[in-house]
Amino acid sequence: MYGYNAARWHAVLNDLPAALLVVAVLFDFAAAWTKRESLMWAAIWTLWVGVIGGWAAVIAGELAEDAIEHGEAIHEIMEKHQTMALLTMGVFTVVLGWRLIRRFQMPAQELAITRMLSVVGILALVWTGVLGGQLVFDHAAGIPSAKLQAELENREAGHHHEPGEEHEHGAPADTAEATHTHPPGTPAHTH
Length: 191
Prior knowledge:
- The protein has helices at residues 6-34, 37-67, 72-101, 108-138, 145-157, 173-179.
- By secondary structure, it is mainly α.
- The protein folds into two domains: 6-143; 158-191, no CATH class.
- Helix 2 runs antiparallel to helix 3 and helix 3 (72-101) runs antiparallel to helix 4 (108-138).
């Protein structure tokens, strides 16, 4: 749809729910600290949207798993990422469900437990993101092999700047070499 495959839809869908889940927990702690009902409602609504969006991201991730080229290294990390995503969404779904079932009339101990679970959910969310980052940035998951090969060849060919042309970091081309750095593993080349 719209030229996007499952991996790209997963990338589109996973950032906003993650941010909303973090903000929901922050709203919840702010509500507990300030005793403001408006913050409690902000926490609930943000949690609702974060959980719905999070499950959409999980579904897109499940579809992406079967749609991208990958070897054993990617598959191993992908399984861990998938497990953490399911665990994360399970935790936040339980917190939301618990609060809805109890109709916001929970004693302090139950509120403390749901807040503790939310913190566990945030930790799981961060680890899920770390694993997703490893997939993309360390293993180029989701990038077709032909495109990756073409990019490697492009990098090997190098690039150059015309005299006086600004370098990407703002230094003129003739002084760029002194300030220009490349990511680890970039083949040697001239400017």
